[in-house]
Design a protein that fits this description.
about 0% strand; Annexin V, domain 1; mainly alpha; single chain; Annexin; 4 domains; calcium ion binding; calcium; about 70% helix; about 325 residues; annexin
Length: about 325
């Protein structure tokens, strides 16, 4: 299914790829006075991540320098962040985002929620291994040290990708959720956490349908009513991702740009990490949910080379 999945991205591998020629273009764009940002962004958005790694290796061989260091030396601001993100292998990028979310000033729970709720079990496994290799730390321990309560418990459950879930039947799950939420005074968050931590999206969708039939409420409505704060955000993300990962990311992008100011970190993270996965699907969900195109919203919300590069990643305008 990886081939099938890969075809839903907006960024494809460039044809007739020549790492040496590309490395030369980048070197020339950064040589001497001034920088040809346009040449850099046009090239890198037209290559897959795997090809960018090839360019990086060849650049080192040809010029004896680290391409990412050179780019950082020439670029600045959000545009630099976007280009560096594009140059980072996907799992390494997730690992860096998680590390910064945990070790930065205060914890950026939003990043923990987004990555751990949306990645496949195999990706989570790879992330845990890469995190250990990169930092010689245990991701689960770091998450535990930085979070608390039911929010922490659900994050830990999402990290247990090897666990075989006690297969509570759909019947039992919906009843337990009803009893945990709508039916009692005070909410039994633990039940929400245990049941929604089940990694099988297919199973969860059946539970949501059964829950709706039984209570007349969508799962999301109950979560919003019965829980709050980080836990609520994480439960909602898990439910939304079980229903549709691309729809979840369409919403994430919309709220990163809606209103005053832009959450550029989220905009960069999602556009880069979904560009070869499902950005085409994200675009169509975006159009359906918000009655405007992702392209037009990015265009209205960003500027300069940063905007140019984001629009190239976005691909077409579904106006």
């Amino acid at each position: 299914s990886s081939m099938l999945q890969a075809s839903r991205g907006t960024v494809k591998a460039g044809t007739n790829f020549n790492a040496g020629a590309d490395a030369e273009v980048l070197h020339k764009a950064m040589k001497g006075l001034g920088t040809d940002e346009d040449a850099i962004l046009q090239l890198l958005t037209a290559r897959s991540n795997a090809q960018r790694q090839g360019i990086k290796d060849t650049y080192k061989t040809l010029f004896g320098k680290d391409l990412i260091d050179d780019l950082k030396g020439e670029l600045g601001g959000k545009f630099e962040s976007l280009i560096v993100a594009l140059m980072t292998p996907p799992i390494a990028y997730d690992v860096t985002c998680l590390r910064n979310a945990i070790k930065g000033a205060g914890t950026d729970e939003k990043v923990l929620v987004e990555i751990l709720a949306s990645r496949t079990p195999q990706q989570v496994k790879d992330i845990i291994a890469a995190y250990r290799q990169e930092y010689d730390d245990d991701l689960e321990e770091d998450v535990c040290g930085d979070t608390s309560g039911h929010f922490k418990r659900l994050l830990v459950i999402l990290l247990q990708v090897n666990m075989i879930f006690s297969s509570l039947s759909v019947e039992d799950s919906k009843t337990a959720l009803f009893k945990a939420g709508e039916q009692k005074y005070g909410t039994d968050e633990q039940s929400f956490v245990t049941i929604l931590g089940n990694r099988s999206a297919e199973h969860l969708r059946k539970v949501f349908d059964a829950y709706m039939k039984m209570t007349g409420y969508e799962m999301e409505e109950s979560i919003q009513r019965e829980t709050s704060g980080n836990l609520s955000a994480l439960l909602l993300a898990v439910v939304k991702c079980a229903r549709s990962v691309p729809a979840y990311f369409a919403e994430t992008l919309y709220y990163a740009m809606k209103g005053a100011g832009t959450d550029d970190d989220t905009l960069i993270r999602v556009m880069v990490s979904r560009s070869e996965v499902d950005l085409l699907d994200i675009r169509s969900h975006f159009r359906r949910l918000f009655a405007c195109s992702l392209h037009s919203m990015i265009r209205g919300d960003t500027g300069g080379d940063y905007r140019k590069a984001l629009l190239l990643l976005c691909g077409g305008d579904d106006a």
